[in-house]
Write a structure and sequence with these properties.
alpha/beta; TIM Barrel; 8-stranded parallel sheet; globular
Length: 228
């Protein structure tokens, strides 16, 4: 299938999953993950009506955003962020899905343009595994981090939570846990109702658990170019 056909196929599957879950498909944002693909692909996607794209690496995000000349899109940073890259991430991302510690929140807030009222959308990444080496804050720290952002980082707008389903576990119960953490965040920031969850292999389960933002890569973009 070509790009248009792959996009249409995924969108049809998203709509079917939403209706099966008793949800309106229009309430779900499909983010196309374009890592390792050239900026030309982003421009082709935008020409097909794609409005949200995701990148995992700051250098790639920055290079593509600078080179991009197509219709406006929202750039979602979904990879692990280092505090020393906070200024570049802040400059080039419209939303950061991988906020997992107070130091990163502070760095992103401090990186706001001087005198600029610019607000950055952020999501707290939750580690749904028992492995502290995986990305995300432990569930026990979610509320504290949400309170920190809300109280001390006025240039960040906490939008919700993000997670990756654990390997070796069925995704449905993991995403149900994420939905419960989302409810906890909304007790602190009532309008932080985004749930970024679900990739190619598990977006149906994510939609059933309430996901509002899906991160779909190769099922739409095709195989990633060989990356050395």
């Amino acid at each position: 299938m070509d790009l248009r056909s792959r996009l249409a196929d995924i969108d049809a599957r998203i709509s079917d999953a939403a209706r099966s879950a008793g949800r309106d498909p229009s309430g779900i944002t499909r983010i196309v993950v374009t890592k390792f693909h050239p900026v030309d692909l982003v421009q082709d996607l935008a020409a097909l009506g794609v409005t949200d794209v995701g990148e995992n690496r700051q250098q790639e995000l920055s290079a593509k955003r600078e080179a991009y000349t197509g219709d406006p899109v929202r750039w979602h940073f979904i990879g692990q962020a280092q505090t020393n890259k906070a200024r570049a991430v802040r400059r080039d991302a419209d939303a950061v899905h991988s906020l997992d510690r107070a130091r990163l929140a502070d760095a992103l807030h401090a990186a706001r343009p001087d005198g600029d009222g610019d607000i950055l959308d952020v999501l707290i990444q939750v580690n749904l595994t028992d492995d502290p080496g995986r990305g995300g804050v432990a569930p026990s720290g979610v509320a504290e981090l949400a309170e920190h952002v809300a109280a001390t980082c006025p240039s960040l707008r906490l939008r919700g939570v993000m997670a990756v389903a654990p390997l070796g576990e069925e995704p449905a119960p993991a995403f149900e846990r994420l939905a419960s953490y989302s409810a906890g965040v909304r007790r602190i920031v009532p309008d932080a109702d985004w749930i970024s969850a679900g990739m190619t292999g598990d977006f149906v389960e994510a939609i059933a658990a309430g996901a509002t933002h899906l991160r779909i890569g190769s099922a739409i973009t095709g195989p990633r170019p060989v990356h050395g």
